[in-house]
Amino acid sequence: MKQLISTADLTVADVDDLMRLADSFAEVQTRDVPKVPALRGRTVVLAFFEDSTRTRTSFDLAARRLSADVLNFSVASSATKKGESLRDTVETINAMGIDAVVVRHRSSGAPVQISRWTDAAVINAGDGWHQHPTQALLDYYTIRQRIGGLDGAKVAICGDINHSRVARSNVDLFTKLGAEVTLVGPKTLMPPQTSDWPVTVSHSIDDVVAEVDVMYLLRIQTERLSSGLFPTVREYRSRWGLTLQRASALRPEALIMHPGPMNRGVEIDAEVVDDSRCVVLNQVAAGIPIRMAVLYQVLGPGRFEDTAGDQVGVSTDAVVEQGGQAEPTNGAKPLSVDATEVNLEADSQSAIKEASCQ
Amino acid sequence: MPVVAIVGGTVHGVDSDREATVLVDDDTGLINDIIPGGAPDGAAEQVLDASGCVVVPGFVDLHSHLRQPGNEAAETIESGSRTAALGGYTALVAMPNTDPCMDSAAVINEVMALGRTALCEIKPSAAITIGREGETLAPMAELVDLGVRMFTDDGTGVQDDQLMRRALEYASSLAADDGTQIVLSQHCEVNALSHPGVMHEGAWSAKLGLAGQPSEAEELMVMRDIALSRLTGMNVHMQHLSTAGSVDMVRRAKEAGIPVTAEATPHHFCLTDAACASYDPVFKVHPPLRTDADVVAIRQGLADGTIDAVATDHAPHTPDSKELPFDQAPPGMLGLETAFALAVTELDLSLDRLVELFCSAPARIAGLDARHGGPLRVGRPANLAVVDLEHRWTVSGSEMASLSTNTPFEGRTVSGKVRHTIFNGEPVVVNSKAVR
Hints:
The complex is a heterodimer of chains A (358) and B (436). In chain A, helix 6 (165-176) links the parallel strand 5 and strand 6 (180-184). Helices cover 43% and strands 13% of the residues of chain A. Chain A is globular, with a radius of gyration of 21 Å. Chain A is of the alpha/beta class and 358 residues long. Chain A is built from 13 helices and nine strands. By secondary structure, chain B is an alpha/beta fold. Chain B folds into two domains: 3-55 and 379-434, Urease, subunit C, domain 1, CATH 2.30.40.10; 59-365, Metal-dependent hydrolases (TIM Barrel, Alpha-Beta Barrel), CATH 3.20.20. Chain B has helices spanning 77-86, 105-115, 140-146, 161-172, 191-194, 203-208, 215-232, 244-255, 266-270, 292-304, 339-346, 351-365; strands at 3-11, 19-25, 31-36, 46-49, 54-57, 59-64, 89-94, 121-124, 150-151, 183-186, 199-200, 212-213, 236-238, 260-264, 309-310, 384-394, 413-423, 426-430, 433-434. In chain B, strands 1, 2, 3, 4, 5, 16, 17, 18 and 19 form a nine-stranded mixed beta sheet that branches. The model of chain B has no long low-confidence stretch (mean pLDDT 96). The interface between A and B is medium-sized, with 26 and 23 residues.
């Protein structure tokens, strides 16, 4: 895996590898020092052309726990508001000598364009209405933990599908893994053409609520009101919101999911958020090991096999080796204690570097 | 008497089976003689080899953006005329969406003055409304007196039905001193329906997560303008038709005797919205690239006469503006240097039909037929192109004479290379090189 732009580019084997790696990295998080030196010496730029505290923080933490140096490039301090072309911005970042660039952009396709202008690994952290692949992966990770997998599972994705990168990523990933996906919402919030999508479309949440294994709700943005996409928030809730009453029709083992941030009382009733079937916080927690796994896959020894040994030394190699194996039979402790000790040093070094970069 | 002899080609409209020599007077700019099978008698000052080529009337483009005044980094009248000449054009209609807009005598005069030293004839069009804002009519009578024959708010259509009706009625009462007709040319797009689309609305826009423009945004205005043409009796020229529905409506309007004409661009008969999958803004254009079915319909319309002319919508943009995200980049693509080759390569049409599409019909629509568009006859102005239809070449934006490089056909191999272009008797392109 050289980059991650879209879940459509992932094979089932890629997804399995990422899940196993994430299991290993989840275990790292339970340690006193939740950090490994796997990406020591690697520089990851978080290029967020659109504000996103949640996703940026999650990637930031994931990169630091792998001991990568992290450079935050935020739009507020960048030149992109001064008419600099996307290419100039990317080439400027590139000239600093980076290994990976995590891109969030309000325009669909920006990470695809950026990948043409840099040799660094491009990781899409959400582009316009197009894709948000790490969200889909962490959603699957959460589902896999709770109900084992998606093969044959029924998933409803309800809300503003057309303007949702989460919906597109999740449709691609979930259907690839064998789920039956139903998109739910009014026609105004559906993509203009879904006849070639491997999904069914329903305009009634009541028709699907009792059958699904996963009820996935999307955030309703109230600015859609002014575009005439639905009349009122009240009407949206009454027709398509997961109200307390509808939640009671959900099967006892079904999952309630949401990518956040939630509009309580619009797409989901406040009381439903506290339902034991609601795994929103599990999703957030899954973000760290999933993003560690993605960073590791694009920057790990597979990508740098020619130079990894020279640059990071023997003890790091051992960590990388074990993380790279991560076979299911490998058990829960693939990462050595030695590695953690090595990493205490890397920790302080990267902290110093981060301070100077920002 | 300096004479240019074009030797060894077959001359369109003369005798397609025999080579002929065309003698051109460099001073008068007229065709002196056409000698079937003949060779120059030694009097020629310059001999241009046309062996293996066809000699056709110089092409006329109804739709070029030359960016001057206002955006001279992307194109100038001089550079635009050079890329046009290299593409075989001897005349083009310059679109008015410059900065300032071509909506006043001052700007029209400036463009005409700059055009006097160009490598082809620059015919300015003017905006229908002041600033192309769709609110107040431009001083059409004054601009007609300066020589303007085509009015358009190109880049946007006139949204207001009543204002468009008034513009047509007002234009119908204006008489050009040379008897040529005045035409209103429409960019057919209902903004309320197309906004905020950046590509064709359909399977690809749904997949790519880009806002789409439905075909109906174009078709509604085509429908309205057919109705307004019927109401006013005034000719409406439909720019860059891109949908099967538009072609069908224009075909039926013509059958009903409504005086509409239409153009289509090479990119709309060669490319589809699938090209946008790369998110490369070089494929962003308005109207957007459509579907395979639309391409088929455009080609049918070009073949059966529904569509009168091929127009380029040549729209240069600097590299930095095309290195923005797809939804933020400006729409438009280069066209002048590749149009004829793409038609030769992609359209299964006779040379006679190609000459109608590139020469006679656009010259007539633009009011340029006294000097351009053929036929090639002794005494006519020597505006002609010499084209090797078999010559295969590979498109490269950086090798074009345009100041911009935004061709969507980069790397494509096409047939049909313009070898020489003669503009008013002057060889401005010789052996596929501009002479100045």
